[in-house]
Specification:
The protein is built from 19 helices and 19 strands. By secondary structure, it is an alpha/beta fold. The strands form five sheets. It has a seven-stranded mixed sheet with strand order 9-16-15-14-11-12-13, sandwiched between helices. Strands 5-4-18-17 form a four-stranded antiparallel sheet. The chain has a three-stranded mixed sheet with strand order 1-3-19. A hairpin with a 2-residue loop joins strand 6 and strand 7. It is globular. The two termini are about 45 Å apart. The relative contact order is 0.18.
């Protein structure tokens, strides 16, 4: 896909969230990764939109003239708009960040023994068993005793239909997905429900009494100024945010406080991306919750980490929310609301909050409450079917749905901060892996011959060059090799100023300003 089309996608993302973005210079084009899907284009569009939104945020001043209702333009100076760039290869490689991550030269193994694709009597099914309780649920669903191995699971799956296995595992509170073709997925009620959802939903939360929360303390309306009908001068009431912001493009999100309540890839990537632009990110976990050891390190650059047990320490989290700007969560839909931490609860605690919700299958439809992960959504949505020969699943060469959704979540958060400044109120951002999958599907396909011509080198390797995109950093875990974050604003690249911390290594408190 051409650079012009990628730049157009970025503009469309801005229009979708109500923010006018500066033009983004796109460097390179697909194909970058060995897939018929336009992963590089999706990566560049989502990461480029984030960079553009951050540029707008950094350019905002205390007061700005705006043309027409809802118009949001970046501040202009003698040099014009900020120069925002995104490199397609860099963005695509960033979508593979866990594959290139090394701890003192050692790669991480992200898959548990029983996670994988299994042949069923009528097709294929994938089981996600990275957490012990999901493994145990899969074994119960298959009628197998604890401690059963991969061969036992394979035999049990071979005797049953793929959708039957999927349903049985879901009933046991596990995670599974049958492989569907694109046509089968598009005919599914969940796919039809997703078609009604925006790619990155950004909406204003209702205030007290169900009205838009103009009484929230984030009042963007300062009345009319001269200039005729439709021209208003909007005073941006920033509260704590304005006093904490760092000047310039070096750390444009300096002073923005982000609570990261997430664990596996999409949410952690969103918070990590905001940290790369200077946000103060506090990751909240709990000692009793399972983690994927390598991933919890790889996605923690630039963050601090604390532990809070919501079963007994909910008030500690409420105290953090009261001083936060953004809360990112990726629990199963409704799980935090049941504990008093739904978007409306957070807005009551902290008027002006931006709540970012990440789900597997979206907020409506029969699968809205279903657990899911990137590899499962690829199976369910027809991607694993089409990416191969249709006879057996072939996953994408990146956890592209996770990373794409993570960047869209970060982009939505910055867009909501901009909307908050201009309009006041508290804001809700919604993204999902399955909606991101639909976006990837809509982008079209790459001819296999073009992939071979562009990617196969003399040794027959179908991967992009990555050495110039890697950096190293000392950490409590040893020397880390990692993919640097993509994008640039006026020549300044996002970067992390601190290594991943040990889990729970910080107090449950914000860093001093």
């Amino acid at each position: 896909m051409t650079r012009t089309v990628t730049a157009k996608l970025i503009r469309e993302l801005g229009a979708g969230v109500g923010v006018a973005l500066p033009e983004v210079r796109v460097i390179g084009e697909d194909p970058v990764l060995p897939s018929v899907f336009l992963i590089g284009t999706m990566a560049a569009a989502s990461a480029g939109a984030l960079a553009a939104a951050v540029a707008v945020y950094a350019c905002r001043t205390g007061e700005s003239d705006q043309e027409g209702p809802g118009a949001r333009e970046p501040a202009r100076d003698a040099h014009g708009d900020p120069d925002v760039t995104i490199d397609v290869r860099h963005a695509a490689v960033a979508f593979q960040s866990e594959r290139h991550f090394r701890t003192t030269g050692k790669a991480m193994d992200t898959w548990a023994a029983l996670s994988g694709d299994y042949r069923a009597s009528d097709g294929w099914v994938r089981l996600h068993c990275n957490f012990d309780h999901h493994r145990d649920a899969a074994l119960r669903a298959l009628g197998l005793p604890p401690g059963s191995g991969k061969e036992d699971v394979a035999r049990a799956c071979a005797a049953r239909a793929a959708v039957e296995i999927e349903d049985a595992v879901i009933r046991e509170d596990g995670c599974a997905a049958a492989m569907r073709s694109r046509a089968e997925w598009l005919a599914h009620p969940q796919a039809q429900a997703l078609a009604e959802l925006p790619l990155a939903g950004v909406s204003r939360l209702p205030g007290r009494g169900g009205q838009a929360d103009g009484d929230s303390g984030w009042d963007g309306q300062a009345g009319r100024a001269g200039g005729g009908p439709g021209r208003a001068r909007t005073r941006l009431v920033l509260g704590d945010l304005g006093s904490r912001r760092l000047a310039g493009m070096t750390r444009p999100l300096g002073g923005v406080r982000v609570l990261d309540l997430t664990r596996v890839i999409a949410g952690p990537v969103a918070a990590r991306a905001l940290a790369a632009y200077g946000a103060d990110v506090l990751r909240v976990g709990a000692a009793h919750l399972p983690e994927v050891p390598g991933l919890v390190v790889e996605t923690a650059f630039g963050k601090r980490s604390c532990h809070i047990d919501l079963r007994s320490e909910a008030d500690r989290l409420r105290e953090l929310v009261c001083q936060a700007d953004v809360v990112i969560q990726a629990y199963r839909p409704g799980a935090l609301r049941a504990r008093g931490f739904g978007p409306d609860d957070l807005a009551a605690l902290r008027p002006g909050i931006v709540c970012v919700d990440i789900s597997a299958y979206g907020s409506r439809g029969p699968w809205a409450s279903r657990r899911g992960f990137d590899s499962l959504v690829q199976m369910a949505a027809g991607i694993a079917h089409e990416n191969g020969d249709g006879l057996r699943p072939s996953p994408l060469p990146a956890q592209a749905l996770d990373h794409g959704t993570g960047y869209l979540a970060a982009f939505g958060a910055v867009a909501a901060l901009l909307r908050r400044e201009a309009e006041g109120g508290s804001w809700h951002v919604e993204v999902s892996l399955a909606r991101t999958a639909a976006w990837l599907d809509d982008l079209g396909r790459i001819d296999e011959a073009r992939i071979d011509d562009a990617l196969i080198d003399g040794a027959g390797v179908r991967q992009p060059r990555v050495d110039d995109l890697l950096a190293t950093m000392d950490s409590p875990f040893g020397t880390l090799t990692y993919v640097t974050p993509p994008g640039a604003i006026d020549g300044t690249r996002p970067h992390w100023t601190s290594p991943p911390p040990r889990q729970g290594g910080h107090p449950a408190a914000w860093a001093p300003s």
